[in-house]
Design a protein that fits this description.
Blueprint: H1 12-32, H2 39-51, H3 55-68, H4 73-85, H5 89-102, H6 107-120, H7 123-136, H8 141-153, H9 157-170, H10 175-187, H11 191-204, H12 209-221, H13 225-238, H14 243-255, H15 259-271, H16 278-288
Length: 292
Amino acid sequence: MATSRRKDINNDLRYFVKIGILVLSFALLFFGGAFAETASDAVDKGLSYELDYKYDDAITEYNKAIEIDPNYANAYFERGSLYYDQKNYDQAISDFTKAIEIDPNDKWTYLRRGLTYYDKGDYDSAISDYTRCIEIDPEFSKAYFERGYTYYDKMEYELAISDYTKAIEITPVYSAAYYERGLAYYELANNDQAIEDYTKAIEIDPKDKKAYYERGYIYIDKEDYYLAINDLTSAIDIDPNYGDAYYERAYAYYYTADYDNAWNDVHKAEALGVTGIATFLEKLKNASGREE
């Protein structure tokens, strides 16, 4: 079985932005002397509290920033982002919407609100926000990626492929876009193109266990069992607890009549919480002459 698609929102960029803002703020304090607290100061304090995992204190500072300057869009953005991280999606959307009212041309706020709508299951609103991002910045590859991701979940695979392709044109080393486009090609039964995309994803990121897994999965469909074993072994080497990879490799071993290794992988997968398909286990029992 193919792996489920999991959303992995990467906050690394936001983390480094926080660090940069704090460094600048402290520099201004040191060289500029004392001054009255501004909304920006309060936001900087909130970001500092977030880095220390003091989220309630961070919210308090963002609230203070808004009291100081009700039209300071960044305060709503940062508070909304924290609400998003806490899965308080309705409050996050409210804050992002207010930030957009103040600054209707900030692509990052539309992106963040789009991600929030996506996580709420409101795919159409998410697509609308990603589209607005693209209108503001036609070279915003992340917006194309996220819109393609959402089209995929709506089973609009051709539209997904179109957006992933645009993201790749803008950012040729976008490994996740190659991986996701491969999934869309697979859904359209274009296995060769899917393999090509997984291969490119692996070239860019040799530690992409999911790309190895999905390529191995297709090789089983194509009856290229030894290629499948190689890929699934690579996925397991990257993540020794990758239960699905053990189970798929068991299939490949079964089809090469390597029943001992097939059973070893079944047992490993089961120990990792991956349950087998009864019909496959029955076939393995019959072929190997073993019960387990």
